[in-house]
Amino acid sequence: MLLYLVRRLLYVIPIGLAVSAICFSLVFLAPGDPLSAVLPADASLELIEKLKADYGFDRPIPVQFGKWVARAVQGDLGISIATGRPVNSELARAISNTFVLAFFACSFGFTLGLVLGFIAGYWNGTWLDKVVTSLAVAGVSVPHYWLGMVLVIIFSVFFNWLPATGMGAGGSSEWAWDWEHLQFVILPAVTLSVIPTAIITRTVRALVADILSREFVTALIAKGLSDRGVFWHVVKNAAPTALAVMGIQLGYLLGGSILVETVFAWPGTGFLLSVAIFQRDLPLLQGTILFLALFFVFLNLLVDMVQTLLDPRIRRT
Amino acid sequence: MSAAAVDVREAASAAPAAQFAPTQGYWRSVFSRLMRDKVTVICALVILALILMAVFAPWIAPEDPLKGSVMKRLRPIGSEGYPLGSDELGRDMLSRLIFGARLSLVMGIVPVLCALGIGGLLGITAGFHGGRVNTAIMRTVDVFYAFPSVLLAVAISGALGAGITNAILSLTIVFIPPIARVAESVTTQVRALDYVEAARASGAGNFTIIRVHILGNVMGPVFVYATSLLSVCMILAAGLSFLGLGTKPPLPEWGLMLNTLRTAIFQNPWVAALPGLMIFLVSFCFNLLSDGVRSAMDVTR
């Protein structure tokens, strides 16, 4: 097992390099010159050359990639073309905002998903199960950006209970954990949690129903084990898979927050991405995508390791 | 042993032929099971109706989807001449929703079809050849798994720039890796079966083995998996347009309509929510359809 863990850890290096290569090559997908967005139409040739040299665009591509990776490893992702500030500092602020959103979305969605999934799996085949299963299908089918709009229409336009967009007065710099600010996070967090909730519900339902149909559960009940005892056995058997699904869903949630952040004008990584795309700010685009993808790689690694440690049945070599 | 065999033969010849139901083929039994599943049939009919609506849009739509009127902006649902209201430029919502089905359905279905072709080919090649070819293809595919799907789609179309072709291209790239993985694992399983070995022993070449023995067994599971991607693709495609990375205005497309109507939610909220309802409907039907096809093709049941 130790050997597997070490190999799994080392496997992150080639994957990380390949991910960086894809992020880097995004520049070459882009039509036109990345500098054309910031340069005035009548820019002199010297100015263009100087800026190219500043950003390193005048070097051969492998050299550019090598330098880019070397600097990225040290935590330097270049300078945003649009704002002129380091990509790092832009990213750091956005990440903390997205994490606030993800924290609430996960706490809400994972809890609800676990509870609903367990209910549906335990009462497998009853009307309760059918209701929950239908809700889950609706949950994976709903375009969440639209659901966000509908929630705004209901809770902001009609009832005027919750604010529609933004992060509260003072933006992200004055964020605090009080109702004044927390009310802004409710609608986007609920919207963002719908897909993970539905997927976890479906997974847990299938898991619980499967475990309960096994012979060892019948044996446990036959020997007179209390419901609570049986419940503990179900949890123990379902935990590795359920944890794995939750880990992956957290990654999808972070990577997919761009649509929800656009709807709610939430100043997180998704918002940063759309700024980068529409201002054709390639260093910012590369940096944000690199961070999100590497975080996802790291999450996958964590999930694999936790699963290996938790579940002795998985014999990995 | 031989006595038992004789018994069976005698019993068979003795019984009148009409007592034996003709054995159903696999696809026929799948189809008859599908037909008995009401939910699946209804979903299939809804999608068929929407496709017909998209094809015959010019004959069905009451108005020109591009013709606006400054005077008649944001009419509510049910107002005179505008059964579903009008949008922020005074264009008829009903007509735009009908015409919108064209681009939305194309952008939701074409990427999965392209990915099915390319990913299926890659997966079958990797699974059939094994060894280095397999490693080369599947490790490349693994790299794309390092990106959450929405992020990958946004990254590629963001770099390529807005446009229908670019959106379809980026979604195709998103769906190739998962399809290739399914195709590879099924092909690897089928390749190890005895009858493939028998075919090889009797002198069949690689191409014949793939065409006759592998393809028929691999296409089923891969096809079922691809249908489950249709609903995701529908949501993602409209999502790209919603971000401004797909269709460009003034073309009617549900995701883009949702985006341009976003500013109108304070004046006319329900009209603004209509395009999303269409996306939801299609994606919901695709999901149930895929579940139905999956359980109908499940032989073990």
Could you characterize what this model shows?
The complex is a heterodimer of chains A (317) and B (301). Chain A is mainly alpha-helical. Chain A has 12 helices and no strands. Chain A has a single domain (88-310), classed as MetI-like fold (Orthogonal Bundle). In chain A, 74% of the residues lie in helices and 0% in strands. In chain A, helix 4 packs antiparallel against helix 9 (227-255), helix 5 (127-141) crosses helix 7 and helix 7 packs across helix 9. Chain B has a single domain, classed as Orthogonal Bundle (MetI-like fold), CATH 1.10.3720.10. Chain B has 12 helices and no strands. In chain B, helix 5 runs antiparallel to helix 10. At the A-B interface, helix 1, helix 5, helix 6, helix 9 and helix 10 of A face helix 6, helix 7, helix 10 and helix 12 of B.
Low-confidence stretches of chain A: none
Per DSSP, the total helix count of chain B is: 12
**Quantity of strands of chain A, as a count:** 0
Give me the CATH fold name of chain B.
MetI-like fold
Shape category of chain A? globular
Radius of gyration of chain A: 24 Å
Cα-atom radius of gyration of chain B: 25 Å
Distance between the termini of chain B: 31 Å
Name of the level-1 CATH class of chain B: Mainly Alpha
| Named CATH architecture of chain B | Orthogonal Bundle
Oligomerization category of the chains in this entry: heterodimer
Can you summarize this structure?
The complex is a heterodimer of chains A (317) and B (301). Chain A is mainly alpha-helical and 317 residues long.
Write the layout of secondary structure elements.
The complex is a heterodimer of chains A (317) and B (301).
Chain A: H1 2-29, H2 45-55, H3 61-73, H4 87-122, H5 127-141, H6 144-158, H7 179-212, H8 215-222, H9 227-255, H10 257-264, H11 269-278, H12 282-310
Chain B: H1 2-14, H2 26-36, H3 38-55, H4 57-60, H5 93-129, H6 131-144, H7 149-160, H8 164-191, H9 194-201, H10 206-243, H11 254-260, H12 269-297
Helix pairs in contact in B: 2-12, 3-5, 3-12, 5-6, 5-8, 5-10, 6-8, 7-8, 8-10, 9-10, 10-11, 10-12, 11-12
